[in-house]
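Now read the record:
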Amino acid sequence: MSAPSGAWFSLATRSPFSHSRRTYARGHAYQPTQLPVSRVLPDPHAGGRARSGQACQTGFVTSEQHVSGGELLVSTHPVGAGFFDQSVILLLESDTDGAVGIALNKPSQMPVSQVLPDWEAQLNPPQVLFAGGPVLPNGALCLAKVLDPGEDPLGWRRITGDIGVLHLDTPVELAVGAFSDVRVFAGYSGWEAGQLEREIRQGAWLRTTPREEEIFGADTDDLWRRVLRRMGSQAALLSAYTANPELN
């Protein structure tokens, strides 16, 4: 059962550059649905973390304009940032309290049918849980694209264009025929007030406008490289990174 609308809950987030903890009050669309297992995905912190200040070494210069929901954040760290290595994150919301987003390119091996069987038939392939981030990894959020751009279905909150967050407590029968694309994420990424802006200034993230196929596409293995390539310039150079240091 998800927390009631407006409830307070703890978002314990670990960014690539700091280990901040923050409690937020979020709208109903951002109250994750509790999954019926203690941990769905492997520990998202495993694999190492970048140290504070490491982002300054990337050399990227990014805009300091206000960060807003609907933007795509692209990690400038091929390795060394743990969960955020080569992450592509759709920002759901950013305000004076902080920011919330979900990683688009971290599919798990866990079929949605094992934890949310009623939703399986509504999902885009692959029909698995995606790791949205290190915050509340046993909670689920759902992205969905409405079929009718003029409608705001029950339990759905618009993020960008026809794409928004669908609360998974919404009866499935109300979702049938209302959405063309649906994907479920376990956990999400969070930043306290000013933290994301600071990381952007340090060069940890590049910003761009998402394309629909980048949000719901079945092939996520090279999404990080594809987004960087279509951004061009220094970003395209980063996309050529290889694990072999002699080739970089």
User: Anything to note?
Assistant: Confidence is low (pLDDT under 50) at residues 1-29, 44-61, 244-248. The two ends are 48 Å apart (CA to CA). Helices lie at 172-175, 195-201, 212-216, 223-231, 233-238.
